[in-house]
Amino acid sequence: MDKWIVPREKFSKLFPFSVDAKDFFLKYIKDEKFSVCYITGRLKQIADHLTYSFQGEIGHMYWSVRYKGVNTRVVNKYVQVYFDNKEGDINDSVLVSFVFAKELGLLGFGIITDVELDALRKYVYTDETSGFYPLRIGIKVFWLHNSIINSWKDYTKWEGIRKTRNSPLIPLPAGVICIENFKGKPVKPFIKDFILEMERGIEETLSFYNGLKEEPRKDFNQANT
């Protein structure tokens, strides 16, 4: 994939697994040039999708979105963040995604890089027995809970960050929800402070993925047996 799909120059510094990538990402956060979406699912669902970042395109996960007239809100938010200008250029801003498991809380966060509508193919681990999931959201991962880094082959050992119901950092209804306010207050200041506090964890996550690039890969189901 990395030989055929390459970063645009404006965002190229976000993609290496380096301190420079961390600093470039955090500059968007410090300058408040970002918006926020929450992805929430069951732990097994999250693990099935996050494994792509371990065994597929290293450091990049996908999330499958169920067809309900297609989730136009996240598509519209993507267009708003990256393309909503009169110059016909790409905005110098990013769409941040927080990834939650209902059972554990916050597992990770990153930048939404792409949205793909695909009626003919699906992500290999997506269960479509109760409906189909034609929309895929791509995320460059910048932070994972350290339990995932330590036990990436066994999701039963994963943990998450749990907050009280008064905090905006809680799982929302399943799926993808882009938010600006929580209980009448803007979420951006809280998200900004939280991400900046995770600087060391971002470095550890990028270092982890950098190490995975050289590891022999095997099927995720084999890795969990």
Automatic annotation (TrEMBL):
Protein name, as recorded: Conserved protein
